[in-house]
């Protein structure tokens, strides 16, 4: 008689594997959840730093901060002249673009629209309704994310 070989797993073996996978999932999934929050926070800080540095560079070139136009800062992603007027890149419009494409988004609400702060010269105290990504003070050049728990000094 030839020996008989098993060709399947027993129920106990399957249950042991399922229990081990459940334990691993319980340990690993919370770590990935905090990684997502950390990634959003890092993206927000990077985007905010990019905006602040390019707004400051615009001020150095033009002597003033860019002004809001229809909840946007088009002077940052277009060529401008010394007066801040937008035009085709060339000798008449030697400055910029300071940002490629469009303004970066706030990763918490996926919006890149910009609204003015309620009180110029002061840090925002609350979220502006309407889902804007950023709050901007054209008098100081300061820009903040439109979610107050992540404000930082300009």
Distance between the termini: 85 Å
What is the percentage of strand-forming residues? 5-15%
Number of helices: 1
Strand segment count? 5
Report the average pLDDT across residues.
88
| Percentage of residues in helical conformation | 25-40%
The CATH class name reads Alpha Beta
Q: Label the overall shape.
A: elongated
Q: Strand order across the biggest sheet?
A: 3-4-5
The assigned structural class equals: alpha+beta
**Low confidence ranges:** none
CATH topology grouping: Glycoprotein, Type 4 Pilin
Structural features:
5 strands, two-stranded antiparallel sheet, Pilin-like, 1 helix, 154 residues, alpha+beta, membrane, three-stranded mixed beta sheet, 34% helix, Bac_GSPG_pilin, Glycoprotein, Type 4 Pilin
Give a quick summary of the entry:
The protein has about 150 residues and is of the alpha+beta class. The chain has one helix at about 10-60, and strands at about 80, 85, 115, 135, 140-145. The protein has a 3-stranded mixed beta sheet with strand order 3-4-5, with helices on one face. A two-stranded antiparallel sheet has the order 1-2.
